[in-house]
Every structure is written in structure tokens, then in C-alpha cells.
């Protein structure tokens, strides 16, 4: 079994990072423009915190199975 990612999985990772960065940048831009927190930025922060909390569990399950 190869340790490299397949092209489809590589594309999915790039899409995930790219869309996450784009949505966060849009939330920051809208917050700065409106001079208060925009709901999109709050949504991005909650998604980042959820993925940070969930990641160790995913890694543990991947390592176990």
C-alpha cells in the first residue's frame, strides 16, 4: 500500500483548505467592512474549533483500525 495520496484525495484536500481559507477571508472582510462581527466569521470560527476538537479522535480511530 502506497503512502501517497491519490489524485482525487489530493484534490479534496486542496479544495477543503482553499474553501476554508476563502470563507474565513470573506468573513474577516465583511466584519471589517461592517465594523462588527459578521455571522459568516462566527460560522468559520465554530467550524475551525469543531475540527480542532474532532481531529484527535479521528487520528486515534485511524491508528486503531
From TrEMBL:
Keyword Membrane attached: yes
InterPro entries for this protein: AveC-like (IPR033459)
Superkingdom, natural source: Bacteria
Transmembrane segments: 12-32, 39-57
UniProt keyword terms in alphabetical order: Membrane, Transmembrane, Transmembrane helix
Protein's UniProt name: DUF5135 domain-containing protein
Annotated organism of origin: Mycobacterium angelicum
Taxonomic placement: Bacteria, Bacillati, Actinomycetota, Actinomycetes, Mycobacteriales
